[in-house]
Specification:
five-stranded parallel sheet; 5 helices; 5 strands; alpha/beta; about 20% strand
Length: about 110
C-alpha cells in the first residue's frame, strides 16, 4: 500500500511578508501550512510534526543547518535562496523574489516526487 503524500507544508523565513503570502497561496491550493519566523521555531515544528514539503530560507538557517539534515529530510526541503547556493542537499531551490504563481506547482511536484 502506498503512503499518501502529506499536504502539510512548513515555511520558514524571517520575512513576515513572505510568510503571509506563501501561507495564503498554499492554503488556497489546499495545503495545511505552518510557518516559522526563526530557526528555533523551525526546529520545534520539525520535532512536533511531519511535513510533505519544507520551504526554508537559507539566510534564516544557514548552510550548516541544511548540511546537517538527515538524508530523508533533505528530499522534502525546498531552499529559498537570494543567490548562489546551487549545491545544497535539498530537493530543489527557489529564488527570491518568489514567483507566487509557481510556488504551489513547485510544492506539489516536490511532494509527488517522493
Amino acid at each position: 500500500m502506498n503512503a499518501v503524500p502529506s499536504k502539510r507544508v512548513l515555511v520558514a523565513d524571517g520575512d513576515e511578508i513572505v510568510l503571509v503570502l506563501t501561507r495564503h497561496v498554499l492554503t488556497r491550493e489546499g495545503y495545511a501550512v505552518d510557518v516559522a519566523s526563526d530557526a528555533s521555531m523551525l526546529d520545534d515544528l520539525l520535532r512536533l510534526n511531519t511535513y510533505g514539503s519544507i520551504l526554508v530560507d537559507v539566510n534564516l538557517v544557514g548552510n550548516e543547518w541544511l548540511q546537517a539534515l538527515p538524508p530523508a529530510t533533505g528530499s522534502r526541503v525546498i531552499a529559498i535562496v537570494s543567490n548562489g547556493h546551487d549545491s545544497l542537499p535539498v530537493k530543489t531551490t527557489i529564488r527570491k523574489p518568489l514567483e507566487l504563481d509557481a510556488l504551489a506547482r513547485i510544492v506539489a511536484a516536490s511532494i509527488e516526487d517522493r
